[in-house]
Amino acid sequence: MNISFTGYRENVLTFECTNTVAVGDLVKMSASGKVTKVAANDTFIGKCVGVRDGYAAVQLDGYMEAAKSGTVNVGYNKLVAAASGVKTAECGIDRLVIYSDVTTVRFIL
């Protein structure tokens, strides 16, 4: 792709996290002020961009890339976690998909 959306509205907050959260994981809220790694079909709040000493920096807004499972069309889609990456679902949060190919989906959180 000859254009870049990296850096667009990337807002990051710090949460307490379980020891299973790693950089690159999609995460969900697990308790007040705490996040954990998502399971398949979970709604996610963002992507972990840093982990240290029981805390996770989580990107909550902006441009994001993920592996995709199944068909994900450009435009607004309800996205949830898949076994690896994201997929469309009947429930979930509407995300603006700006690029989709055979393996990857790029969207705005």
Describe the model.
The protein is an all-beta fold and 109 residues long. Helices cover 0% and strands 51% of the residues. It contains no helices and 10 strands. The chain has strands spanning 12-17, 26-31, 34-37, 46-52, 55-59, 63-67, 75-81, 86-88, 93-100, 104-108. A 5-stranded mixed beta barrel has the order 1-3-2-4-5. A 5-stranded antiparallel sheet has the order 6-10-9-7-8, with no helix packed on it. Strand 9 and strand 10 (104-108) form a beta hairpin. The two termini are 20 Å apart. The model has no long low-confidence stretch (mean pLDDT 92).
Proportion of β residues?
A: over 45%
Give the helix/strand class: mainly beta
Number of strands: 10
Side-by-side strand order of the widest sheet = 1-3-2-4-5
Query: Mean of residue pLDDT?
Result: 92
Distance between the termini: 20 Å
Low-pLDDT residue intervals, each spanning 5 or more residues: none
Question: In angstroms, what is the radius of gyration?
Answer: 13 Å
Q: What would you call the shape?
A: globular
Fraction of residues in helices? under 10%
Q: List SSEs in N-to-C order.
A: EEEEEEEEEE
Instruction: Let me know the largest β-sheet.
Output: 5 strands, mixed, barrel
Tally of individual helices: 0
